Each structure stands twice: as structure tokens, then as C-alpha cells.
Amino acid sequence: MKQIVIEGGHPLKGTITVSGAKNSAVALVPASLLCDEDVMIDNVPDISDIDALEEMLEYLGAKVKRMNSTIEIDATEIQNREIPEKISKKLRASYYFMGALLGKYKVATMYFPGGCPIGARPIDLHLKGFEALGAHIIEDGNKYTIKAEELKGSNIYLDMPSVGATINIMLAAVKATGTTTIENAACEPEIVNVATFLNNMGAKIKGAGTSTIIIKGVEHLHHAYTEVIPDRIEAGTYLIAGALLGDNLKIENVIPEHILSLLQKLKQMGVKMKLEGDTITIRNSDCLKPVHITTGVFPGFPTDLQQPLTTLLTCCNGKSTITETIYENRFLNTKYLNQMGANIHLKNPDCIEITGPTSLSGTTVVATDLRAGACLILAGLIASGTTTIQKVEHVLRGYENIIEKLSNVGAKIRLEEIK
Ligand code: UD1
């Protein structure tokens, strides 16, 4: 077990470079299975979710070479077999093996994916999409066998714009016969990154980034290269760190268009920022104004940033609210923020009210999920005294070198192994 220990109150000065996006990389790596030749992906973050995907690829017999942030994958000679639950439950994105293996071999056998405990997180929309393409699904407890004689293009309307279902259906449809249309598709930048990679291999996908994606099936996918886009959630997390403690902290490798909803809210709060190309310089300010946030699908306010932002809202003068519309269980972090001295109460099951400003004091808290962990790290950075955050394996799944990145700009933070 690992824990993070932080001595709070130190200003953050210098530069943090944003890594490749976790949610893109975890889809690009499984997408490589579809290719009939080898592929190369650059700017891959060094996080444990990628280690788990590498383990899945190697389990199937793919050749994987990782050097710094580059990964080369040759999946031309894999053996398509059942993926054991102990591997697939390591992360949510293991579900992309369903779409990729089905798309290439017309059969995939694996278990319900893992991931953060932030809600029920069903995969019904993924499965309905596969069925629309002609697959039959046999459910045996947690195990799914998804099989098709032939995959045929189809018109698929998603009941909600799910990121995972949009990408998974795209993966299953690239080699189907005929044309697939996904309506009410999710528009997140990670979807564009995956579609671009598949198109680099010779796929014919149009409309990624809009709510209608059209995929014309192709027979062969050839060698391709792509780069993972910068992680908008990591960028947002460090911007919030800058708004809390920045002494002209520079966050570089940011695509501002990907985080406009956060930038807008920071501006409304009165946070001082300067945008220059892909760099944002940010510093802490007194007298922040409270704001009201409602999470939504892209380009709305990302659910993945509401927990980190909660720490900043404890510093605002007055009452802020966060309404969570995507997940039903994403306020577990507030219990621990309150233990540190915050004043947060649940107005109703999907809305919290944060009354500030409050001073936080260090104590021992638990990272219940990835972004809750990020929220508590930010809280530890501003708290008086020492904060110990337990179960930080969640955090290491998604933030590359977070300890080094924060230490390099002046934070007193360390990772400890405990027995
Ligand atoms: C992805 C991200 C996650 C982010 C989320 C929303 C990855 C690996 N994870 O998760 O970080 O928080 O998008 O931006 O990219 N739903 C269904 N049925 C389905 C699929 C989804 O009801 O078949 C619901 C979910 O329960 C949730 C909502 O749709 O309420 C959005 O989920 P979705 O966009 O699919 O999120 P993930 O792909 O799991």
C-alpha cells in the first residue's frame, strides 16, 4: 500500500509540463489491436493504467516495446482468448478490448471492467451498439462473450453521449461491412484523438468531435503513428493548484480550447491567469468569488474536475455549489475535506454546497477514487501541518509523476510505501 505525505503551505513556482491524456492513451493502446501491421504511439503517460493495458496486450501475445513516452505495439500475431477478470478489473478502459477484439476477430470474451467506485457505471450502451452491428452477447455473471458471424454497419443512437460507448462502437465498426452512424455520440477531445489514429491506419471515420460520427468500414488497417493529446484533466488539476498557491506557476502543454469551461469558472472566481499559446501562468489570489458548477458532457464542465475544484471552492468568500449530473457517487471526497476543516454539506444527492473561506488543517484521509485523490492532494498543499493521504494507488493510475512534478515547483510532498 502507498500513501502520500504533504507538508502544506509552500508556494508553487516554476513550470509544470502536462503529460499525454490518460483517457486518450487508454483507448489508443487497445485500438492498436485492430491494426494489421505494427503501430507507434508517442506521448504516452507513464501511469499504472497503461501498465495494466500492456499486461493485457502481452497476455494475448502482442509484442510491446516501451521507451520513455513511446510505445510500439505489434499485435499481428496475437491469440484471441478469454481475458481473465483479475487483469480486466484493474481499470475501466479494459472495456476497449471488447470493441477492438470484436472488430478484428468477431469475438471477444472478457469480464466487466474495473475503475473508480463513483457510480454503477453500466456498459449497456456499449453492448447495445455491438448488437446493432450484428453481435450476439452471452452474459455469464460478470463474463461477456460477444460474437458475430459478420459485423454490418448500422445506425446507432446512444441514449446518452457516453465516451466509452462512442469509442468502443467506433472500434467495433471500423472493419464492419458498410456504414455505421453513431448519433448522440460523445464529443470529448479523446474521441477525436482515437478517430485520428484509426484514420491514420486507413479507417474512414468522419465527424469525430461532433454528435454524429460516420464510419465507413474498411478491410485492412496499416502501420500508423499518433501522439496522445495533452491531458486536459491533469492540466486543470495543476491550474487549480496554481490558483491555490501559485507564485506565477507556469502550466505548459495545455490546449486551452479543451478546458474552456474551467477557465471560464476560474475567471468568474477572480483567479489571475495569463494565456500565451499553450502555456498558462497562474497565481493565487485573495478574495475569490463563489461560483456554481454543473458538470456535463464536453464542452460542459468535466465531472473529472469537479472534485479537484472543490478544494479551491473552500477558499472562496461565500457559498458555491457543485451539481454532479454524470455519476451518482462522486462526492466521497467531501467527507475528508470536512475532516480537514471545510464546510461542505450535501444539499441533495447530486448537489453539494461549499461555504468558504475555511482554513484546512492536515490529518489522515483516504483517496476513495482517482480524482478524489487529486482533490485531497490539493487540500494537503494548502492545509496547515501534515496531511497523509492513504490508498493513493488510485492517483498513480492517472497522474504521471505527480510527486516529482509538484516537488519540482516547491511542494513538500512524498510517496511512502506502507506495509
Ligand atoms: C469516461 C472517462 C472518465 C470520465 C467519463 C465522463 C475513460 C477511461 N474514462 O468514462 O474519466 O469521468 O468518461 O467524462 O475515458 N453510461 C451508461 N451506460 C453505458 C455507458 C455509460 O449508463 O453503457 C452512463 C454512465 O453510468 C455515466 C455516463 O453514462 O453516468 C457517462 O459515462 P461514460 O461517458 O461512458 O464514462 P466512461 O467512458 O466510463
Q: What distinguishing features does this structure have?
A:
2 domains, UDP-n-acetylglucosamine1-carboxyvinyl-transferase, Chain, globular, 419 residues, binds uridine-diphosphate-N-acetylglucosamine, 14 helices, four-stranded mixed sheet, alpha+beta, single chain
Give a written overview of the molecule:
- The structure is a single chain.
- With 419 residues, the protein is of the alpha+beta class.
- The chain folds into 2 domains: 2-19 and 230-417, Enolpyruvate transferase domain (UDP-n-acetylglucosamine1-carboxyvinyl-transferase, Chain); 22-227, UDP-n-acetylglucosamine1-carboxyvinyl-transferase, Chain (Alpha-beta prism), CATH 3.65.10.10.
- Helix content is 32%, strand content 25%.
- It has 14 helices and 23 strands.
- Strands 21-22-1-23 form a 4-stranded mixed sheet.
- Helix 1 runs parallel beside helix 2, helix 1 runs parallel beside helix 7 and helix 6 packs parallel to helix 7.
- Residues 23, 26, 92-93, 119-126, 160, 162-165, 186, 303-304, 326-327 line the site of uridine-diphosphate-N-acetylglucosamine (UD1).
What's the topology here?
Layout: E1 2-7, E2 15-17, H1 22-31, E3 39-42, H2 48-59, E4 63-67, E5 70-74, H3 85-88, H4 96-105, E6 107-111, H5 124-132, E7 136-140, E8 143-147, E9 155-157, H6 163-173, E10 179-183, H7 189-200, E11 204-206, E12 212-216, E13 224-227, H8 232-245, E14 249-252, H9 260-269, E15 272-276, E16 279-283, E17 292-294, H10 303-313, E18 318-323, H11 332-339, E19 344-348, E20 351-356, E21 364-366, H12 370-382, E22 386-390, H13 393-396, H14 402-408, E23 412-417
Parallel strand pairs: 2-14, 3-13, 9-10, 17-18, 21-22
Antiparallel strand pairs: 1-22, 1-23, 3-5, 4-5, 6-8, 7-8, 10-12, 11-12, 14-16, 15-16, 18-20, 19-20
Helix pairs in contact: 1-2, 1-7, 4-6, 5-6, 6-7, 8-10, 8-12, 10-12, 11-12
The structure holds uridine-diphosphate-N-acetylglucosamine (UD1).
